[in-house]
Amino acid sequence: MALPGLSLPGLGLNSTPTPVYSGPVPPPSEQIARREDLPPQAEWRFEAAFSQQYSIRVLHGHAELFGVELANNQTYNLSGCKGAVFTWQGCQLEVTGEAESEYAAQETEYAVEWLNLHGMLETARDDRPNDGPRVLLVGPDHTGKSSLVRTLAAWAVRNGRTPTVVNLDPREGLLAPPSSLTAVTVGSQMDVENGFGISPISGPTITAVKTPLIYHYPYASPTDRPALYKALLTRIALGTINKLEEDPSAKQSGILIDTPGTLNDPKTGYDTLHHLVSEFSITLILTLGSERLYNDLHRRYAAGKTPDEALPVLKLAKPGGAIERDAGYMKQLRTRQIRQYFFGTARESLNPHSHMLGFDDMTVYRAKPTSADTAEKTSFGAAEEDDYDPSGNGSMVSANAVFEKVAPSVAMMGSTIAIKFCPANSEEFTVRDSAVMGYLYVADVDEARKKVRFLAPHPQRWGDRALVWGQWPEAVADLVT
């Protein structure tokens, strides 16, 4: 069965040029390189600002960043990155530029723990070739969950596996702008500078093509609209598992699921975690940075159960290099992810396209704002269970309606708009449950002429599709000039 979002349209290179990228670029300047010698099982931790040049080159030995091996004598630009270059046998680095913080650390016991976990997952893949491990990572924010997912995926790829990575945090994008819930099967090594890379939908790229399955959650936190979030989890789980049934190698490699830290709250997040465990048929839960969360989940899924009934719950230590990313940094990160979706990176530039549409040629659905009066009054209680019909034959309870049709306005400028795989005049539950074809950027709105200028990754029009304007992420005003 073909699934929306798992294939991308052809490349088009002959459309009207679009306005040039106007984002901030670190100014070129003469930087003095310095050398750092790292002993075995040590790491170079750094926090580089977006506005500063910062690069690392391995001169001797072997080193890796989030599980991806760094090639010797190749310079990697890591501006805007907070990470740690780790070495198992020792290495010499050449570091250029200024960082907000940088130091060599030798308290890296977590790396051995992660490597043992990788070995355990490899054993599980070999023991059950027809059904690989399905791993759920949970814990508070800033505990290293995303770093662990990237590292486990990179190590699996180096072993010839093709793991499927699922990102369920709408605050960060994976091969898509923020507000996306994404599943992608990783069959090639990830990029050192850009992680999982970028979706190559408006030009050729250096890295291998990755075709994600994307759903749109137009809010910052699962607690803003828990019923909507739960419905989308069911959809992405169904799509991911169906896709794995078509690919024996990916099914054997298993699933790695990264979750937002808000699910760590017993009052608002535990029901969502239990829903995740059920929908994805989780076989292993990993907890990071929360003793309470580990004990709560262990009590529910493992304690007092037979080996056949128990779901293993493991507790991992928080890495010493896992640090808090403040609101200012996260806003800059979201802006960069949106910019890269349309324009690519300095090394892999993309060529987006301009589209001018009249107000009457589009149907825009606006995600309603959340408030104490409109938010759901239960945390997946009985009243909410009836809001979602997996068969697609029902409709949403009007009191919990999420979207409303709106006329285009200047308030849309700078926003990202999701194109849904459904007709423009679909029922609300269809709009809600449909996967994402792609995203648009609202470059200009002319209310006098009743025209909207969109920036799109593809030269062709998207046809009669529903357009969803979310409450998240915030508008980016300076994407084009």
From TrEMBL:
Tree of life domain: Eukaryota
GO molecular function, one term: polynucleotide 5'-hydroxyl-kinase activity
A matching Pfam family: Clp1
Keywords: ATP-binding, mRNA processing, Nucleotide-binding, Nucleus, Transferase
Organismal lineage: Eukaryota, Fungi, Dikarya, Ascomycota, Pezizomycotina
Self-association state and partner proteins as the record states: Component of a pre-mRNA cleavage factor complex. Interacts directly with PCF11.
Compositional bias ranges of the Low complexity kind: 1-23
Protein name per its UniProtKB record: Polynucleotide 5'-hydroxyl-kinase GRC3
GO CC annotations on file: mRNA cleavage factor complex
Nucleus as UniProt keyword: yes
UniProt-annotated binding residues for ATP: 43, 82, 142-147
Primary location class: nucleus
Family to which the UniProt record says this protein belongs: Belongs to the Clp1 family. Clp1 subfamily.
HAMAP family on file: Clp1
Biological role: Required for endonucleolytic cleavage during polyadenylation-dependent pre-mRNA 3'-end formation.
